[in-house]
Amino acid sequence: MNFLSLIEAKRAGATLTPEQIQAGIRAFTAGTIPDYQMAAFLMAVFFRGLNTAETTALTLAMRDSGDLLKFPKDKRPLVDKHSTGGVGDKVSLPLAPLLACLGFRVPMISGRGLGITGGTLDKLDSIPGYKTLLPAKRITEIVQEVGCVICGQTERMVPADKKLYALRDVTGTVPSIQLITASILSKKLAESLDALILDVKFGCAAFMQTKADAQKLAKAMVALGNQCGVNTRAILTDMNTPVGRAAGNWLEVRESVDCLDGKGPEDLRMLVIDCAAHLQVQTRKARTLVVARKQAEACLDSGAPRHKWDEMLQAQGADLTAFRRKLAKDVTARVVVELKAKRSGYVTRCDARILGEVIRDIGGGRLTKEATINYDVGVDQLVKPGEPIKADAALCRIHAGDVQQAGSARTRLAAAFQISPRRARSLPSVSGMIG
Ligand code: URA
Prior knowledge:
Layout: H1 3-11, H2 18-30, H3 35-48, H4 52-63, E1 79-83, H5 92-101, E2 106-109, H6 120-124, H7 136-145, E3 148-151, H8 159-169, H9 177-189, E4 195-202, H10 211-227, E5 231-238, H11 249-260, H12 266-282, H13 289-301, H14 304-315, H15 320-328, E6 335-340, E7 345-350, H16 352-364, E8 378-380, E9 388-389, E10 394-400, H17 403-413, E11 417-420, E12 430-434
Helix pairs in contact: 1-3, 2-4, 4-9, 5-12, 5-14, 9-10, 12-13, 16-17
Residues 84-85, 111, 174, 179-180, 183-184 line the site of uracil.
């Protein structure tokens, strides 16, 4: 195909036909369009944008670049949740078993950390024996038998996104609303879902820094998801402050288990309940959000999702004895230090971006694609905005790989916190809904 003419047309601001977009994605996936041409095309899209029909065509072409997950007919609806990414965002972990206990099937295909945002698969890799890479047949079996699975996409699922994302990452073309929409929805549509809840984050540690931009992204994704036959809703949530009191792969798994045990932080519990409640309303399992929230809370408090979590872990190869032994330890990192408050007052800022950067830099995330992760590093026992603190009390604990790392993390993390004499109004974590 003559891909150069498509690059030139988009550069000039022309509208492409669905057939042109499909042919381009097919050829790129097959390897007949070189990366430099696709990079030029992506940059043209970044500046010129895509209209709704073009974004739909791109999404469907990407979805159809590989295999779709197929499930037998069943009265349990197929649902999933996707977050645009944040710091301390471990909602998927307790949510999947909760949804399974509420009578859903959950083929939760997740990703790895990106930039400073943590990845669900990296968190799960901290569980002894847990397998995040499963063949499609096994994914289907676990969903049918257990009700939920959390794993990565197979080699044959949405290969176009894998190739395109790698190029976008190194060509400055990630933050395009249409490209993000196509990337996220192509993967979710490949799961053959009935309903999808999107958690679109805004704030200093999110892709979308302002609520207005998050709203635009949410609207685009909700419209396209619904148009493609998946009942789609989005909630807009704050990502200026981390979710919960822990950030870092293993520390977040531990906090997720706390949530399943009814002990987790309130903001995490609320987000988990909210996502479950929306999906119940979307699939008509509940008539109103108020009723749905009550049902989800009762289910979480029954302890059934905690058992379901163990069942899912076992189905995905985890060594439950080793997992429980690890959970019983207060600390798994080599060195743990406290960051102490310099004065008494109220915490008015706990900057998720600084936290995310520090955790990534001490080995909790990746600075290069090849970097290995230290699953045990991170922060926990965070004091959050709106909460009182006494001089010399701990604002958080820092879990690090060695003494030097712990020291530099402590110095940098001091800038993440602000303490003021007066309590500031803390933002609600969910601040809007689209769909
Ligand atoms: N997550 C994705 O999967 N794709 C994007 O483009 C951005 C976030």
